[in-house]
Amino acid sequence: MADKVVLAYSGGLDTSVAIKWIKEKYGFDVITLTIDVGNSKDFEAACQKALKVGAIKAIVIDAKEMFVKYFIFPALQANALYEGQYPLATALSRPLMAKLLVDTALAEGATTVAHGCTGKGNDQVRFDVGVHALAPQLKVIAPAREWGMTREETIAYAAKHNIPVPITRKSPYSIDECLWGKSAECGILEDPWTEPPDDAWTWTKSPDKAPNKPAYVEISFEKGIPISLDGETMGGVSLIQKMNELAGLHGIGRIDHIENRLVGIKSRETYEAPAAVVLLQAHQALEAMTLSKDQLRFKQKAAIEIADIIYNGLWFSALNRDLSAYIQSSQRFVTGTVRVKLFKGNSMVVGRKSPKSLYNLSLATYDRGDKFDQSAAAGFIHLWGLPVTTQAQIQLLSDIDDPMRLIAPKQKQLKKRAKKKGSKG
Ligand code: ARG
User: Fold this and answer.
1) Is there a catalytic annotation at residue 94?
2) How far is the CA of 39 from the centre of ligand 1 (A)?
3) How many CB atoms lie within 10 A of CB 246?
4) What is the pLDDT of residue 1?
5) Sites in the chain below the pLDDT cut of 50
6) Which of 171, 174, 228, 357 is labelled catalytic?
7) For 341-373, how does the pLDDT look when each residue is reduced to its tens digit (9 = 90+)?
8) What is the domain partition of the chain in residue ranges?
9) 178-364 has which fold?
10) How far lies 158's CA from each of 147, 244, 394, 414, in Å?
11) So what's the pLDDT on residue 151?
12) Is 174 an annotated catalytic residue?
């Protein structure tokens, strides 16, 4: 009996060709696994095609809920943004896919899993490391990394083997989509000086064609997780889908990123992530109300670390588990509502409230009801500035090499002035 392989199957050209190619090259029986992470796709048609090309079984898993609960929301709570720009949509979906590949392989008695990644990207790393971490006994094959065919050759291979190539005019870009965002690369986008053409954007309206009237949306969070829009409670999947639509309509969520891939390449990619952009902004606004200054500072460092972990394919590492425990703890009081204004490509937080808010009006106000003890400020400032004044007197004011000497009055002048004053008074 032939070995079985579970292939992560999108229904596109590469993974369709992979079904035939694996059979030819390895002699394995191919089971395809198509995973719904919120990519608008005809999953039924994809399965039909897989079977037609020669798969012995075609499985579809709706993983949207799992994706939101275990991957997207934890990343949102962490404010994970790779290089300060990319909300990590694809990068978050790959470890989930790796897990489902492993589950399916074990259930089907397969020895091997396969994916359609090339050898130039980050996704191969995320798949390979994910699978190896979860089930070291499984082998991983990556046909598109091995076969060395150009795009033309892949199409020729498909034609030769009667594999249907999509007849719809193919997008000139390489696209990946999931609930948390869409990425586009290749084609004219490879020229970093060229502005992304209109057809590079499909999730968002051009800001100049967006409605002339702003929209407001109130997002409520519980422990750092968004639970309702404008007072209407909804599940995470619907909430994200709704936010994508609403913010996309107002031209929000376009990102043009020169990014550093793990494999050493700088690449230009564009992203559309309307929901991610707005929710990350709203979440941070609520944290600003409910976390202390020190918590906020520390959490920013953790966010950079976590974004790198996700991007670099280390989701299943112990460090990610450790940091995620910290993030969960940090969210205990991140509960409340944020009002966001959406207008012509821009989202702006214009209101926030929380039952656990640390914002204290009687401390902040300049009006009546001020409870802040201003007389305590002088003593505080004296001690706060003590190291600076001490060092200035002993070292800096008399140092001719001190770069600030042009600004600081010379000691001599100070003495002169003191004398003058004395003689006058
Ligand atoms: N550059 C992004 C990342 O590394 C997006 C990758 C999109 N993947 C794809 N197969 N088109 O996460």
Assistant:
1) yes
2) 14
3) 19
4) 87
5) 425
6) 174
7) 999 999 999 999 999 999 999 899 999 889 999
8) 4-171, 178-364
9) Argininosuccinate synthetase, chain A, domain 2 (3.90.1260)
10) 13, 35, 80, 86
11) 86
12) yes
